[in-house]
Amino acid sequence: MYTQSLNSSDINNWKLSRLNDTELYKAIVPGCVHTDLQNAGVIPDPFVGVNEVYVSWVAETDWVYSLVFDADQELLSHKNIFLECDGLDTIAAITLNDNEIAKTDNMFRRYRFDIGSIIKPTGNKLSVEFKSPVNTVKAKIGEGNVITPGDSIEGSPYIRKAMYQWGWDWAPKTPTSGIWKNICIAGYESAGIDDIRINQTFNEGSVSIAIDVKIEEFAQSEKSVDIILLDPECRRNNYHAKVESGLAHIDIEINNPQLWYPNGYGCQPLYDIRAELMENGVCIDYCDKQIGLRTIELIQKPDEWGRSFFFKVNGIPVFGKGADWVPADQFPSRIDAEKYEILVRDAAAANMNMLRVWGGGIYESDDFYRYCDQYGILVWQDFAFACGHYPVDSEYLANVRQEAKDNIRRIRHHASLALWCGNNEMEWFLAGNWGGDKNEIMRKEYLEIYYKLLPEVHAAEDPTTPYWPASPASSEPFVDPNGENEGDGHYWEVWHGRLPFTAYRRHYFRFMSEFGFESLPAYSTIKSFAEPEDMNMTSLVMENHQKNSAGNGLILFYMAQTFQFPKDFKSMVYVSQLLQAEAMRYGVEHWRRNRNGFRCMGTLYWQYNDCWPVASWASIDYFNRWKALQYFAKRFYSPILLSAEEDANSVKIHVTNDTTEAFNGLLKWQLETMDGTIVKSADVEINAPAECSIKAADLDFSEYLDYDTRRQTVLVHELHSKGECLSMGVTTFVPSKHLDLLDAEVSAAVEKIDDEVRISLESNKLVRYVMLEADGCDLLFSDNFFDLPAGRKVIVAADTKGMSADEISSRLRITHLKESY
Prior knowledge:
Strand content: 25-35%
Number of helices: 16
Structural class: alpha+beta
Radius of gyration: 28 Å
Shape: globular
Helix content: 10-25%
Largest sheet: 6 strands, antiparallel
Strand order of the largest sheet: 3-2-4-10-7-8
Number of strands: 43
């Protein structure tokens, strides 16, 4: 095989124009219309101010990408030549040398077209015409029983395009068009590799690998496949098989296998497999895969509460800890490998072991799954359906069937892949009366896709990975799909329902796959889209960067319950992030405390990341800046969790051990005043068995707390092991807004050791939610937004980014709650 790339990095003369317009703009491929027009100065940055509104015409316009190129001589020497398009977004017509090759209508599919009789040595003219997605769906409105998600442009489900681009309650309305993935011309001789399938069978002390290589043959000849296996230490083994009836089968026995584990449970060794298609001693095509050796099961067994729902990897029950992933850019063609690695690495750094790829986004880049493999992040993969009702005509279903097949084949070999899930929230909606008088008809249509079509493709292409019809769902279609006794659950009464954070503690979902709370992004992120005069919660710009219609009001509503009203807008940003972090802490700590008997076995909060700079539920904003929630997650997802469950005058302290080994340590608690005066204290020996949660202390402070002392007293709890303080928390007996916080003197000593800076902080009074910042640079701290009780020392580390200790010290800014008043 020979490949000639048509990406801009290799052929740099792509042009973009409006249909039937002679004005040409430079185009970047892979890319999209919006980014090309912005680069050309035709439109402003859609992410700034209210520019989203001013660029809406782009999605209502037809566009043409055009390229003139010469074909490589070696390419033309091959007998079979194809144009291969990994991603066309979305309604496209492809023409080469005035010959229409094909029309496409699915952003998620990979297309290949025979151009052997059309391509010529020089002066090839390739054009890809994209119809306006908005106008395309507008013409279809009223067909079938389609329901559009509430925050999207009307008609969006009619075409197979990422739903979030049409607008969501965290995403702008900027549906784009373009060649959003790689495009190339490939030449083949007598055959090429069509597919490679790898199955694992676990034996005592070994793993059997069965590799099936499917060959597309253009001419009959004797062919074989060589398999090269590299183990994690790069030791090489070779295997060989003949191609018979278009298939080569090879069995490999791996003795003393190195098993792949999720983050927090072990290492992530990976094996490289290369399949080479051989003819007459020459490699004519090859395919590379990287795998991890592991078993994964979705355990659903009857128990005293209903039916369990959790993942078991290599026989170990895993408490799912993570968040819901959305595309990392509104224009996904510009998400590069570096951004994927930063986000996946930061998930692992926050002690996460799972990300749910939400169904309103995309089937992610190969880079995403590769980094999940490397960092031990399990992937719950939704198919690309969310919150709408989709067509079920035969053409649409055939399109979906091929889409599912393409993406299952592309993703299925990854060690990180844990689950295929049919859709987001649609079964829950239809369990009610979402469709009105058409609800029963719509239920039948729904079953056609998520209980018939997708399971059929899944069973044929990847039966070893579990399939789940929807999130949330139960064991029977439309029967209590968001119930607490089985399946997974979404809980939104905290936030949309305005219930207090403590409401989480009334619920015991088997696996909490979605719940969330909003905050503003980092102040420096807000400055990227708003001017100083815009920095008001009800300004036009701030409301345009808040896509949940009630969002800013809900932030203020909950702020009034918990904190004093901030003194300025920057403090508003800070306090909004504290609200979000505390909300998620209440939920996660509660469900982790109730893991025994597999009652609650997972928490994936909404949401992990952002697609543009916006007020949202994300814990990492668009510019990869950690909000308070991400730092809190690092603590509340710690393998050994110390948590407190407070009541009016009492506190229950728990230790949750997610590891596979027993934990022994020391709990130190002190009831103390703001200046550190101890009212009562104790040390408690801790013996927490593996994979369980224990109540370490049940404390009643009624005799010490009255109307005044409740505002002046807190409980400080610390968990120690082997002379080290593993975690520390502060529990209050009144909302933070009523605490009698004292003026404090916070000191910070900065020391540089190699490429790391260590900051030692101390205070003479309790300070809550210490936030560290460095002027002019984004330092990622080992801890942040933490409590600093009187007389304690907290040491925080960060990468120096080449700065000296003195420079970091001069840039360092320390904020705490009392300073926000």
